[in-house]
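User: Need the bound-state model for flavin mononucleotide:
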Amino acid sequence: MYKLLIKPLLFQFDPEAVHHFVFRFLKISCKIPGVKTLLSAIYSTKNPQLQVNTLGLSFPNPVGLAAGFDKNAELIDELACLGFGFIEIGTVTPLAQAGNDKPRLFRLPADAALINRMGFNNAGVDAVVQNLKKRKSGIIIGGNIGKNKLTPNHLAVNDYLICFEKLFDYVDYFVVNVSSPNTPGLRELQEKGPLLEILNSLQAVNLAKTKPKPILLKIAPDLNTEQLADIVSIVADSKIAGIIATNTTIDRSNLATASATLTAIGAGGLSGKPLAAKSTEVLSYLYKNSPKNTNLIAVGGIDSGSSAHDKLAAGAQLVQVYTGFIYQGAGIVKRICKGL
Ligand SMILES: Cc1cc2nc3c(=O)[nH]c(=O)nc-3n(C[C@H](O)[C@H](O)[C@H](O)COP(=O)(O)O)c2cc1C
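Assistant: Bound-state model below.
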């Protein structure tokens, strides 16, 4: 029904307006008694064989919602009814920020892809903590953290530390995002010096806690082999739990969408089907070259059981979806679980 009726209708409107509409619709309809139970009955999968024990956590299934969809943790209880094994909130920054000017989210239907240059629009860590305090669902939550646009890179570590401390009691694992193409200079933090400083500082604070939490690093798919080798050694040196591969790409090659359309859209990160092979390549490299205790979460172009299986076969323990969720609707999680 989603692909035949709902998607053609929703795709008539501006993508970001649709995002907010769907958000409000889910929020309001889930207030009606019985709706959440009904959604869970339709979309959830209860199969003990799909359970994954990793990062010291027990995931009911390996399919999570990727960062960027529920940046402010406003819809946890509602999204939890759609069958996800876990939800990653954020990217959260210390202070609220509006993000880039609109329009900043574009569909590429011919490629089953999106281009976005949102720019970490979010309500700021204090508001996100308030939202997390209200949630009732016990679903596993990842806290994806970043820096404010106005924070210079040499002070970025403070932004990550602020978000880490404030979110610590409310999330189950952390993700250090240094890979969004939409915050100027952010990806320079993937270089050895700044990255080691950020990860070592976070891990020092983390290990001083009574119960430390897993920290993962989310990387771009556009790193070359030398840079990936650096990432592997930095992750091993800082002894964080693992890596999320990958964020969106700035590469625009091999797309079916007309180049004039791409030029008109302009800068941003590409997600969805065209990203799948590239991000799996990065994942495979990480799996082959990392110490065996490195946890890997795969994200990038997953839209079916077989594309999720490709990622698990390449070494991931868990997968996440974003663009596939937009193109396929809520049934995607159950379909992937069934395929697995
Ligand atoms: C509109 C949009 C916003 C996103 N925002 C974030 C974000 O705030 N933080 C982040 O780490 N990744 C963000 N992402 C990247 C996704 O989490 C994911 O890594 C990427 O889209 C690849 O997965 P996909 O092909 O399934 O979409 C965003 C993606 C999209 C499409």
